[in-house]
Amino acid sequence: MHRRSFLTAVAGACCGLPPIPRLLRAAPRERLTKPIPGSGEQLPLIGMGTWITFNVGNDPRAISERAEVLRAFFAAGGGMIDSSPMYGSAEAVVGQALARLGGSPGLFAATKVWTGSGADGPREIAESQRLWGAKRFDLLQVHNLLAWREHLATLRAMKADGRLRYLGLTTSHGRRHGELEQIMRSEPVDFVQLTYNIVDREAEDRLLPLAAERGIAVIANRPFRRGDLLGVAQRHSLPGWAADIGCTGWPQVLLKFIVSHPAVTCAIPATSQVAHMQENMDAGVGTLPDAATRRRMAADFAAL
Amino acid sequence: MAEWSTYSLGDFLPFAQATYLRLFQLYNARFWPATVIGLALGVWVLWLLYRPAPDRVRLASLVVAGCWLWIAWAFHWETYTPLNWAARYAAGAFCAQGLLMLLAARPVFRWSGRVDRSRAPPRIGYGMLVFAVFLMPLLGVLLDRPWQGLEWFGTAPDPTVFATLGLLSMAARRVRLILMVVPTAWCLFSGLTLLALDDPLWPLLPTAAIVWTAVWFRQPAEQS
Question: Which residues of A touch B83 (CB under 8 A)?
């Protein structure tokens, strides 16, 4: 039993609160976190992406459903929400859903700047802040390295003024890794976001070791390859080792593989369903696979 | 160039199929009774073209031009662009098509000659109009989609584009060549969108555009 659970149970018994077993069941499981290398701030391993899933326009029903997804996310100890101006209405929907919750404890607000003009960056960032209802972002990233020199200058100035906590760059689908590597070597950045999952592992060769060496946090996108990996995996039963690392479903297996890499700080699966959110968040508790188990996981998945 | 090969069709669509289908429900509700007016206009166009004298064809083209302009603003700009930033370009293209059709309908231009409905292309064109006005919306019913989200002539792009191809079968060759660019481009764009969304209706518009183009390019210049 965790010390927190034990103390909570004792306190409950002493104060005439609900019986100990109920309290134990209600007690949240310990969330696994990793430090952001540049600051030591702890970040939950499982964040949330918004590509496609939160782009629902002005549909009030869908916005209510997404608010419930966010409620489940925060109830399970979620932290980072990642979006972009490129994702249609996703930023506006995140902002409306957050407003409905009336509070978002632990929110780590991350979005991107996505315009080919450096001069347009500040206007776009201001619009993103308005849509999110955010006084400031925790993290702003240059989307797909678009006009990265100009935007990084803007983000550095914002960080120096205290209007931004962290800055970074993103790629996806394994594109432009060479250019990203050069930037990571030459520019001080807090975060990089790239595609990393049990199949797309090119980043293991150079980018992840470089991130560890340079003290750069890593956000892994496309953890399920937009659902394709789950589609393959869920036709098969879970391997025996899944129980050893506390997994009851394939989403947890795939996410634990990602976040157990020492250089990866968090993964950002996207979903539009509360049940799937809860499944995803279960990957952020319990045991993470060691290096030997990770090798076995990758080999077994490749053999599916 | 190598980077483009890493994209799949789905990477270009920032929304899910359920969101796209729901879009039409919200659109029809927001602009109600535009769908009813659109359907009525479609019936009027069919009546005008039943005996397609040049003035009646010209009037039908004015009605359809108005539908293009409406869709440019109400659907693409107001409704679709918040979901898909690329829709702003579709809004521009639909607006341009509407304006071109208005321009081409002016009496100084020879929109069409005397349309001989005994020839195959005008007959096929009229059949396409009937299909677009009455049958295309019902395809959604066959796929168990809610009736509130059906796509109607005059307000939704696909049936309006389909009907426009039918109308253009009655146009003079030069007019047809100019006015077919945007509709055929939309057929391709819409087909690819639906393909990326795994929608079973995806082949409909691209096939129509290909067949329509092939039929017309095999025809000699029409009589006037």
Answer: 55-57, 88-89
